[in-house]
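Hello, quick one for you while I still have it in my head. I'm working through a protein record and want to make sense of it properly. Would you mind checking whether the tokens look sensible for this chain? I owe you a coffee for this, so here goes:
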Amino acid sequence: MWDLFLRIFHWSLAFFFLLAYFLVTDRLRLHSHAGYTVGLLVLFRVLWGVIGSRPARFVEFVVGPWRSIRYFALLLRGRANNYLGHNPAGAAMIVALLVCVLLTSLSGVALFALEGSGPLANTFVANWPGDLLEGGHEFFANLSLALVVIHVIGVVYSSYVYRENLIKSMITGKKKEISDGESP
């Protein structure tokens, strides 16, 4: 179901985001390298979402917000269809996570520019207000972590409801066949 590139991206993003998040005060150099890696991973995912395998393409699973909300309401009542790929709630979470994690990474790069470091050093970004950038970086990092927690809860809940191990699916790339589901 999920190709090797998508699975490597998923686990790499989880690892490098958590590494950057929890090393912010102890090891700033490692924090920044992990943050750059996160930004590059997101850019790869956006590219792969356009040219990658069919299940990885955004057009295959991203739906409008009302469809995601409707699916979520049905899921809570135990009446939602199962999907072979990402369900509408999962698709909304993917978009939210990609946007928040990218904003976290970009605001971190901008913060480094204030110190005269990184690819944006000595550009117009170096004149932006530091307090605003630092507050934005912290806000998006914390929001991203909250979304990660919600994502994990959603995966565990969906695994229970559909009686399948979705974490294992993201490791092996295989998901049980769906007979009563619908395509996104």
Q: What stands out?
A: The chain has seven helices and no strands. The CA atoms of residues 68 and 89 lie 5 Å apart. The two ends are 14 Å apart (CA to CA).
